[in-house]
Amino acid sequence: MSNTYYEFFCPVKVIAGKAALEHIPYELSGLAAKRPMIVTDKGVRAAGLLEPVIAACEESGLDIISIYDDVPPDSSTSVVRDIAAIYRKEKCDSIIAVGGGSAIDTGKAVNILVSEGGTDIAKYVGAGVLKRALKPFFVVPTTAGTGSEVTSIAVITDETKGIKLPFTSSFLLPNAAIIDPRMTLTLPPHITAATAMDAMTHAIESFTCIAKNPLSDAYATAAIKKVSKSLLQVMDNPKDSDGRLELAQASTMAGIAFSNSMVGLVHSLGHATGAICHLPHGLCMSLYLPYVLEYNLETIREPLGELLLYLEGPEVYSATPASRRAEASISALRTLRDALYKRCQLPRTLREAGKVSEDQLDLIAEMALNDGSIMFNPKEVSLKDARAVLQRAWA
Description:
Elements: E1 13-16, H1 24-30, E2 36-39, H2 42-46, H3 50-59, E3 66-68, H4 77-89, E4 94-99, H5 101-116, E5 126-127, E6 137-141, E7 153-158, E8 163-168, E9 176-179, H6 189-208, H7 214-236, H8 241-261, H9 265-277, H10 281-306, H11 308-312, H12 314-319, H13 325-344, H14 350-353, H15 361-369, H16 383-394
């Protein structure tokens, strides 16, 4: 599984720590930006998370010109068009996206329109369409999971056609990601759990898929160690800002890992389940992870066994015979999922998740086979294989 050739790319400046937000004005001024627009959603605003961002900017005399706080959970082309129109009307010159995956993807898409001109975002779909840098763009993540603050991808729904439009370009990467524990302190337990398991899955798939490389491995293992160490602590003590910062950093590191090494079958199944049954992405990741690892087991025995060190620590690792480490890694993940189920009912099976009926499994399997992630899964997957994994995940 060693790649003789690989590429690794992560030009996003990461600004992390307990006063990270206060650095935003300095970063903006370094790019000659004076009129930022904040793009966020109602939930972030209601949780009071914009206040520290605005205060940090105003302290150094930087005025937020415009705040758009109506990004829907599944952002659409019309929302992107509306925001771009406001940006132009207010003569803004930069964007600060504050929120989870949807707000960040929306910020990326708005940045395409305001930088390239026009109102039709669909013109820029696909890879390699953008040829030059966009306007200054900063991301302040409020969930610790998606890693989209360090990925070059955005997905926006075209509601007239009912399809998801994918945008891929290194120019979509933000100028900086601001990781501040104040932004995740109020995350409810089930979202804390699901997003941390999203990061865990990014890291584990990145470490076991066919495009893994030494640099992505380093980020992946560090992320796994942080989630393993801090997730249950944070679940039991939600205001633990050190633990929150650890989870947020883990998410960013896992994002850097998987955007350089790709992901596999967990993501294919998760994307399909999200599309058909509208289950949240992080929940799907947590749910499918052990079943897919069992399916891939013989192909990934060695790397999966290595992960026991980061999942359980040196004592357990050295006390476990090498031939049993891969299985021990899977059971460590199952134990973690049980602990999360006990604390916040994060579902472990499709049946526990509700919203999914057994007769949808065929459709999910078919859709998963057409998902791009499946190409990087370490083991070939047929329709029958995917269906069998879903059956195990059902009950």
